[in-house]
């Protein structure tokens, strides 16, 4: 598979080009238009070897962050900014984020605030990053135990998605990414669910995963997810309307679970998958989600080994704490919780009145 432009999106007059291919881009292409002395690689301990494998990368300064969700904090932003200052990066500089969603979110947010905004390009190295985190310009970090509380909209100019790096991705990261693929299939493209139904993914079979990378159905799966998210974000770049909000399906429940379990103790994808199931349950109880639709979604979630029970099997699980975390969610409006609820063909936004709170509670008991 040769590098090819999958799609060029326009987010608030910013052109963002996604390149899905098999191999890593070379340094000349990655830094095109910028002096090498004005470029800074931003990676973590898990993706440093990817940076080192780019021919000529030793000519470019790098900032190596701690790995994992617990590093998605202000201290990491300070580390990036300090590295940029020490490297002499000016307003005509470029940050290159290399990693999964944590690294790309941090790198892009730092680019947004450093000298009031410099260039940002990304190499996405996880399934979740390719189908969701790196596309659309949402950036930021966790604060006070609340997921993505601080952030900005700052789309990357170029996003490279080299499938070859997925060969070494742990099975837990594959599983985390497929939750966002299922979400996209629910809200935007039912053919994604058909592909998933036809191809049972064995996350724990390394040889089989490597074969996926060269198969047309897998590449089409990624393409459809990237295209769907990009088109949604183009129509509503900063979530001022209702379209982009649909991408939050499963996230009100999921982010609350992540916060209660302790950020990083339950993977983002596992939490979102549980949130999808809980949103279906809530939708059914509110008369929004048809029973057949609920069963279809839960069946796919179970097929991929996700939890669909009302309570999540983590030591810190507590329904009262889940509800408290939901009320800290930035998606609430006028003091009311807002959920994205699956409908027969997509999803809809639903605010929860005070006399409906017990219904929400019943979905997590």
From TrEMBL:
<dbReference type="InterPro" id="IPR030963">
    <property type="entry name" value="DHQ_synth_fam"/>
</dbReference>
<dbReference type="GO" id="GO:0003856">
    <property type="term" value="F:3-dehydroquinate synthase activity"/>
</dbReference>
<dbReference type="InterPro" id="IPR050071">
    <property type="entry name" value="Dehydroquinate_synthase"/>
</dbReference>
<feature type="domain" description="3-dehydroquinate synthase N-terminal">
    <location>
        <begin position="63"/>
        <end position="175"/>
    </location>
</feature>
<dbReference type="GO" id="GO:0046872">
    <property type="term" value="F:metal ion binding"/>
</dbReference>
<feature type="domain" description="3-dehydroquinate synthase C-terminal">
    <location>
        <begin position="177"/>
        <end position="332"/>
    </location>
</feature>
<dbReference type="InterPro" id="IPR056179">
    <property type="entry name" value="DHQS_C"/>
</dbReference>
<dbReference type="Pfam" id="PF24621">
    <property type="entry name" value="DHQS_C"/>
</dbReference>
<keyword id="KW-0520">NAD</keyword>
<dbReference type="Pfam" id="PF01761">
    <property type="entry name" value="DHQ_synthase"/>
</dbReference>
<dbReference type="InterPro" id="IPR030960">
    <property type="entry name" value="DHQS/DOIS_N"/>
</dbReference>
<dbReference type="GO" id="GO:0009073">
    <property type="term" value="P:aromatic amino acid family biosynthetic process"/>
</dbReference>
<protein>
    <submittedName>
        <fullName>3-dehydroquinate synthase</fullName>
        <ecNumber>4.2.3.4</ecNumber>
    </submittedName>
</protein>
<keyword id="KW-0479">Metal-binding</keyword>
<keyword id="KW-0170">Cobalt</keyword>
<keyword id="KW-0456">Lyase</keyword>
């Amino acid at each position: 598979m040769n590098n090819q432009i999958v799609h060029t999106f326009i987010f608030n007059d910013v052109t963002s080009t996604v390149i899905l291919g098999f191999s890593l881009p070379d340094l000349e292409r990655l830094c095109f238009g910028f002096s090498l002395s004005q470029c800074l690689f931003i990676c973590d301990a898990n993706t440093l070897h990817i940076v080192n494998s780019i021919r000529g990368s030793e000519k470019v300064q790098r900032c190596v962050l701690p790995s994992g969700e617990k590093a998605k904090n202000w201290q990491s932003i300070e580390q990036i900014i300090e590295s940029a200052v020490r490297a002499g990066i000016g307003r005509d500089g470029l940050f290159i984020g290399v990693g999964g969603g944590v690294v790309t979110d941090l790198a892009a947010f730092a680019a947004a605030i450093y000298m009031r905004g410099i260039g940002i390009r990304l190499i996405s190295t996880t399934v979740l990053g390719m189908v969701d985190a790196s596309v659309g310009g949402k950036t930021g970090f966790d604060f006070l135990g609340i997921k993505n509380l601080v952030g900005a909209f700052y789309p990357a100019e170029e996003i490279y998605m080299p499938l070859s790096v997925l060969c070494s991705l742990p099975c837990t990261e594959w599983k985390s990414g497929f939750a966002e693929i299922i979400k996209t299939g629910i809200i935007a493209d039912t053919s994604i669910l058909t592909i998933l139904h036809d191809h049972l993914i064995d996350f724990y079979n390394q040889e089989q995963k490597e074969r996926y990378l060269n198969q047309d159905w897998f590449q089409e799966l990624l393409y459809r997810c990237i295209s769907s998210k990009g088109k949604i974000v183009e129509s509503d770049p900063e979530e001022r309307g209702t379209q982009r909000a649909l991408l939050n399906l499963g996230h009100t429940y999921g982010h609350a679970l992540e916060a209660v379990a302790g950020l990083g103790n339950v993977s983002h994808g596992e939490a979102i998958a549980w949130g999808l199931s809980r949103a279906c349950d809530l939708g059914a109880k509110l008369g929004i989600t048809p029973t057949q639709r609920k069963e279809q979604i839960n069946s796919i979630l179970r097929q991929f080994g996700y939890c669909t029970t009302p309570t999540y099997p983590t030591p810190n699980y507590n329904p009262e704490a889940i509800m408290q975390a939901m009320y800290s969610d930035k998606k609430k409006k006028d003091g009311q919780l807002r959920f994205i609820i699956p409908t027969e063909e997509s999803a809809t936004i639903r605010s929860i009145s005070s006399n409906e709170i017990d219904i929400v509670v019943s979905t997590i008991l």
